[in-house]
Amino acid sequence: MNIEQLFENNKQWIAEQLKNDSEYFNKLASGQAPKILYIGCSDSRVTAEEIIGLKPGEAFVHRNVANLVNNVDLSVMSVINYAVEHLKVEHVIVCGHYNCGGVKAAMQSADLGILNPWLRNIRDAYRLNKEELNAIEDIDQRYDRLVEVNVKEQCINVLKTAVVQRAVKDRGLTVHGWVFDLRNGEVKDLNIDFQKHLEAIREIYRLD
Ligand code: CO
């Protein structure tokens, strides 16, 4: 790829925006008020905004390998804190995807060096759902299901934070678990009952 082309693309994009709205960049510079916090995978094929038709300013975004919400990851914790407490987003979306390399790596017995502690979070998601996963004989189907249960566990991790617990109670913040299917482009809602999960973990994780 010619890196200079990216600057050409940028010039074209600026011209397009200004053609549609001469005030576009003045509005963009005036501040942000996104309603959505999107937590997704770093995978190059899963662009946060494009697949769900969002424009600049509409989603606060955090992406990492396998869309993990780890309580000692200062980056994701800062993002959640800022988006929920200060930007006051209305929805938190954790979006995984099938064919996720991070999830696949966590299903294999191999020493992956620096990736080990990161991918251990997915192995933990596997352990917590081991009976269901091991009952699936077909390895591809099991892989798909691990992608889904990983999203569920990361939604639960979102619910363990004090800011989210407060925002759910005080202003009706909602938490959603989705999976993007690269094979047909569809975004699937896992219909995670976050209220039920919050209630279930409250006994141990309640912070509000
Ligand atoms: Co991925």
Strands, helices and their partners?
Layout: H1 3-20, H2 24-29, E1 36-41, E2 59-64, H3 74-86, E3 91-97, H4 101-106, H5 115-128, H6 130-134, H7 139-159, H8 162-171, E4 174-180, E5 187-189, H9 194-205
Parallel strand pairs: 1-2, 1-3, 3-4
Antiparallel strand pairs: 4-5
Bound molecules: cobalt (II) ion.
Residues 41, 43, 66, 97, 100-102 line the site of cobalt (II) ion.
Keywords:
binds cobalt (II) ion, alpha/beta, 2 domains, five-stranded mixed β-sheet, 208 residues, Beta-carbonic Anhydrase, Chain A, 50% helix, globular
Can I get a quick summary?
The chain is α/β, with parallel strands linked by helices and 208 residues long. Helix content is 50%, strand content 14%.
Explain how this protein is built:
- Helix content is 50%, strand content 14%.
- It is of the alpha/beta class and 208 residues long.
- The protein has two domains: 1-30, no CATH class; 32-205, 3-Layer(aba) Sandwich (Beta-carbonic Anhydrase, Chain A), CATH 3.40.1050.10.
- Strands 2-1-3-4-5 form a five-stranded mixed β-sheet.
- The longest helix is centred in the C-terminal third of the chain and has 21 residues, at 139-159.
